[in-house]
Amino acid sequence: MRMICDQVIDHVRKNTPAPENLSDLVAWFEDKGWDEILSGWGSEHVALKLDYLASFKFDDKEMIACEGLDEPLTDDLRLDYARRLISDAFEQSDGYDCPSVHAVEIKKPNGDSAVLGWLVEIHGQGGPVAEFQGAFPDKEKFHRLLASWGLLLDTEEENLTDEAILKLWSKPSKPARSIVVSVKWGNEQYECPMAERTWKRIVQGKQVRRVEPYQYEGKRFKSEWSFNTPNVGYLLVTYDDGGVGFEGRLEEALIWNDDQKTNWVIELKKYASK
What we know:
By secondary structure, the chain is of the alpha+beta class.
């Protein structure tokens, strides 16, 4: 692993090609080096998926229903409501809406260093799941990348401007989750959206767990989607009370890629070799 670490450091410091076996280093940290990822659990940040929260909650109709308002809405009321939602999300974080942020420093003998960045989400009964975000020259650049993706660090809550909140309210910035996998249980169709980088891991046979909220009879619940479980190409979906919503092969699921309907076989051909 030492050689891969050195190559990663040269890549972020000297712009040399990224090592082809970077995934081996990531896999090592997510297995034998797990404690190193979590070593900053109490001192590192958590990050709120602000764009995701906004897409569900920063809405006049949603606010009126939740607050029971019968007065005209003003920007001051919207801002007060939004800031309470953000504060509550940080305080009540279950590890999914607010994953923890972890930066692992790697060093060369000459002192050159780089940072490997992870988000760690809590996926229900599956426990903590690390999502590798990339290699960076320092922790600050890692944090700036997360901010560009619509995540709000806990330390930046007070710096969030009114203008930024109102921009999200009027035109919610939907997360860049271009892949949607959908299955049916009961009489309803349920969806699991994700970023393309996550989908690539699934298509390449990696086990991935996702926790997605859903509405049922006006109430909000959570479903857990376990891809490539128990075997490659399989999907297991469970919901809050431990019930199984779907269990079968991904060929049975509906799949959209950038709003284009596709299927598991096509996606395998598209991504498996990348």
